[in-house]
Specification:
Elements (H helix, E strand, L loop, with lengths): L1 E13 L2 E7 L3 E2 L5 E11 L8 E9 L14 E6 L13 E12 L4 E9 L2 E10 L9
Parallel strand pairs: 3-9
Antiparallel strand pairs: 1-2, 1-4, 4-7, 5-6, 5-8, 8-9
Length: 140
């Protein structure tokens, strides 16, 4: 399985497509609370369809420690994805599973963070970003 993950201001999945706004950044000057989204495209091989896959997206810091919210819960999402084989698709084809995840009110201090994507316990993709203090160089 392969994955593509993009950090953005807003993402939505509609009709099997990802709609992204403000995508592709890696630095943010916080306006508390911080909100962001992840646009994810999973490419699921033909032989891995018709069965559930565990999907975990988690936020960690530069030391690889999980980031928690004010309630002490790890920031992230865990769930399952299962794709069926639609009629007419050529055997052996990869099938797309688009996911749009939105996070609001993140309590992030200045520092380096990484969104990690794991499927069935295997790390498929990661996206690092930096929260810079107010007055620092503007985001690029």
């Amino acid at each position: 399985m392969k994955a593509l993950m993009l950090l953005c201001d807003y993402a939505e999945e509609l009709g099997g497509k990802l709609y992204v706004m403000g995508g592709g950044w890696s630095r943010i000057v916080p306006n508390q609370p911080i909100s962001m989204a992840l646009a994810i495209k999973l490419s699921v091989p033909w032989n891995q369809t018709n069965r559930p896959h565990d999907v975990v997206v988690r936020l960690v810091n530069a030391d690889h420690d999980t980031i928690q919210n004010e309630e002490g819960q790890d920031i992230g999402i865990a769930g399952k994805v299962e794709l069926g084989r639609p009629p007419g698709v050529r055997p052996g084809s990869d099938l797309d599973a688009p996911l749009a995840l939105r996070f609001q009110g993140l309590p992030l201090e200045p520092g380096t963070y990484v969104w990690e994507l794991l499927v069935d316990g295997n790390m498929l993709e990661s996206v690092p970003f930096e929260v810079v203090p107010p007055g620092a160089a503007p985001p690029m």
